[in-house]
Amino acid sequence: MILTHNLGFPRIGARRELKQALESFWRQDIDEQQLQDRAKAIREENWLLQKRIGIDLIPVGDFSLYDHMLNMTTLLGAIPARFDLGQQATPLDAYFAMARGTPNQPAMEMTKWFNTNYHYIVPEFDRQTQFTVASTQLFDEIAEAQALGISPKVVLVGPLTYLFLGKETEANFHRLDLLPHLLSAYRTILARIAALDVQWVQIDEPILALDLEEIWLEKLSEAYSSLQGNGPRLLLTTYFDAVDDHAERLKALAVDGLHIDLCRAPHQLDRFLTDYPVDKILSLGIIDGRNVWRADLSQALKTLTTAQSMLGDRLWVAPSCSLLHCPVDLDLETQLDPEIKSWLAFSVQKLNEITILARGLNQGKAAIQSSLESSAQAKQTRLNSKRIHNPVVQARLKRLTQRDSQRHQPFPQRQLLQQQHFQLPLLPTTTIGSFPQTPEIRKVRAAFRKGQLSHLDYLEAMRAEIREIIKKQEEIGLDVFVHGEAERNDMVEYFGEQLWGYAFTDHGWVQSYGSRCVKPPILYGDIYRPEAMTVNWISYAQSLTHKPVKGMLTGPVTMLMWSFVRDDQPYSETALQLALAIRDEVIDLEQAGIGMIQIDEPAFREGLPLKRSAWDEYLQWAVRAFRIASAGVKDETQIHTHMCYSEFNDILPAIAAMDADVITIETSRSRMELLDAFVRFAYPNEIGPGVYDIHSPRIPDTHEMLMLLEKALQHIQPRQLWVNPDCGLKTRGWPETQAALKKMVHAARILRERLAA
User: Where is Zn(2+) 1 bound in this sequence (predicted)?
Assistant: First the structure.
């Protein structure tokens, strides 16, 4: 029999029950036991759901209260010494201290999980790092699942991936030196799992899809030879791109099976089927775990049938990766357009597709004929739908020229004009865009959406919020204001709702980090902007103050990457459609008198392909899209962009080529380490390295921010440096926001006085 398995299930709950429980716990509305009880209920619901669908091997260990990499750090006892919370602290206290910081210690770094919008907590390593089995949580969850009659497949982050995604915190030391000690801990973990009568462990090594240095590949055989024979059978799991460059090495590896991603890299199958070992399982990720389109079941069955003819029962069927990146259940979407809904599959539906395919392999094609016909009909309906293509948009794309992506003068000339126009002090202070989204704001938006509030009443409520935000920024003493974004639910969804070519869900949430969830819109057709999206809000804010107010927009690459994107045309073409829509908004803002416009691109680095061979093509169209969006304005108009929680070292020439007048970046968690790359590159334009972490409730003092700014000034000219937080402030409360911003402004003023002396 061909078996089915799942690599991971969304842990947030179908209605974001985990988010609600976490935030209640952090507010101290519930205690630790209540939090754990709610988490257990979510796990049990997920397991039983997968069992009902018919998944043979169900993942255990894919659940996390905050992040699976942080879970691994806790399991291994690799808590940095700086988080010494005293004898009264519980394990959960230490867990959340690492994720969110403490009054005395900043949180651990957070960065993107490969090329997704999920953020993981970066492990910290030094010579003193010790590994031991320090938590029972994983083993308790195995027992929970078995008590429900679940046949668990335990999920672990692989040892090489765990080390690779971490960072050294001291010089002249390489984290690979820790591998022997780490493997000893893994052997103990595997032995304990075996003692619980678990047959299979899924051990994730997604770094194998990267262009790894040979030193890491050399350790692969050594690592898995060391783990062999410690109990459970090992399924080494890869995803997000091809690993066929390592096919021979992987086929010879001391594991009992391999998983490869056929959605992101369908071409790699032949390389693995050739001379595949007779004693190994081959799991094929045939259902896309990162997008929401229904599978072409006929094509998938054809691929699997070929593999089955060579592998027999050694073939397993699975999603391409964990379903962490997909919403939970399409059946919850009662308001979605029926035609568009017929094209989609969320996590529950994807698991159903997997069981359908396995049934077709086990019982014959006739057993699933009705499902194959339904899939084919959905494919054909989508292909022929008139709502997909817009001739006006396609004609405009064809008229684009090189001139459309160029400002009038180079940055040095623009900088002089902008300095004369705005007359800002040295080290101008600003924020990234959003201010706290209070419960009151959300209630107003919800009432308006449900038709319980008139348009005029909604308009006045939002204007009242803008007035209050402008007043607070005046009191804080910022130099450049924002309108606060009270009207926006999400930086992508808000704009998508006003563009043709997007569809929206009520429950299509996915986890970004911790309790932070996003609801990516579904980009199904050609993009067109029928009218201005932000001009009235920004113009109203500007009318309330003499300080410049930035227009706030989301850039085309981020609109693309943070949506569920159509798969019937190249991403590059969709990005240019989005760029033209944003360009129109930028020009309208300038014509309305807005002199600073921020086009956020936090997903710019995230979109970079995992293989370097594909970088140039991506960077060319991504840079072009940003420049088309931003280049239609006068030289006096200052274009800002923002990027966060990514590694920029390898793509700084492309970031410079975007030619934004000001870039703001996240640097506080890394203690300005990310800034070092911009310094080494000699980034030519103005830059605002974040001086405090907005993803933590911790309020840094003035001295701490002053130290970060002094470090920045060692390498950056004062006229080039801006002062700002790491990111938007929508998730924070007003008391902490005001306190932190006042300290930030005070730090900037102290430095100005020193520079003037």
Answer: 642, 644, 666, 727
